Amino acid sequence: MDESAVESISQGAPSWLSKRRRHAWSVFEDTPFPSTRSEEWRYTDVSRVVDFADLRLAPDGVPAENGSRPAGLTAAMEEDLAASGHAVLVDGNVVHVDLDPALEEQGVILTSLRTAVNEHVGLLEELLATEVLPPEEGKFQALNAALWSDGVLLYVPPNVKLDLPVRATRWLSHAGSAVFARTLIVAEPGSQVSYVEELLSEDFDKRTLVSSAVEVIARDRAQIQYVSVQRLGRGVFYQSAQRTLAHRDSKLDTLNVNLGASVTRLDLNAQLLGAGAHSEMLGLYFGDQDQHFDHNTSQDHVAPDTGSDLLYKGALDDRAQAAFRGIIRVHPDAQRTDAYQTNRNLLLSDECRANSLPNLEIQADDVKCSHGATVGQLDSDALFYLLSRGLSREQAERLVVLGFLGDVMARLPLGGVVEKVTRAIEQKLEHV
Questions:
Q1: Rounded Cα distance, 16 and 129, in Å
Q2: From the centroid of its chain, how far is CA 387?
Q3: Would you say 155 and 195 are in contact if contact means Cβ atoms under 8 Å apart?
Q4: What residue ranges do the domains of the chain occupy?
Q5: SUF system FeS cluster assembly SufBD N-terminal domain spans which residues (predicted)?
Q6: Which of 39, 88, 172, 361 could join 96 via S-S bond, C-beta 3.0 to 4.6 A?
Q7: 411: pLDDT strictly greater than 90
Q8: From the centroid of its chain, how far is CA 378?
């Protein structure tokens, strides 16, 4: 991956996009590699999990027929039939899109970014990798902005409400490759939409990079639910940068479920830009063996009368590790902010470890803000009670873990997501 890759991927692209890619590459080259000397990367040594010199961009060309699809991809697609629309990506490239014709007639757009750069030029030139998530945000953000191959555009016109979610399935097939994809979601005033994506792969014996950039914009009075369920295989370094912009009286909620990959790094920033805006930020993770999760979140309250509520909970077993850094920033004009941040960790072995660093930065005087973090072991009293009722230790531990994660599960926005996440957690619990 070098400058020639940027030139190659820019061939045939509009001039504005080629210029934007070259600028992003320049930012990438000028930005230092993340180091554990930096507070934001203190607990994750990226040099040990990814080597840019060894990675190659994933090739185009993917199997489209049912008979040649990987079983895991086919199963995921068959589970997600009830939806307003579907998008399927293989190695970062969109291979299938469908949308309810009635929604299409109302002006809803669901398409690949490759198509959108020619058919929806104004929208992408204004928003893609600029206002929301520019390359200057970090090393990986710049690399993604330079080398993304494809992704999804979801646009909802004013006052259009989607009753069923839009579902995206992302499959990774090439070990030792680097996959860069983006998602851009725009909900115009008074609209409503839910977007659910699932990331899947087999286990790999070579280091593999999945880089994701997600830009979500809720205009005045819009409602958006963004859900990501990550179940990538071992050998994968999953890096996701997400930023949400919530305008006046909008509601923009996110849920990140991280269960797979060897190393996961999430950078999530919620911007509350208009009076009355609110964001609920839920996170759930469960690690075993030597999995590593690093969640870096921020809640930026820019306008007055805004609210945010973050709850991230995780369980760790074996030698798994988790790090959480969260900050609530209340800007000078954001009077009457109501913001909360909580991170809780449950340790199931003596070798696993969790580090939690919540923080507040308040520049207004009329606010309600709180943050908290806990790291604890299995509740021995609860275990004893369940054992006394005739359950085996394995059964008792499974119930305690599910109970610990239960308050996040209870707040999951969509029934189908609850079932999918519960099944995935139970599969991991079988090995506890």
A1: 12
A2: 37
A3: no
A4: 3-379
A5: 6-167
A6: 88
A7: no
A8: 28
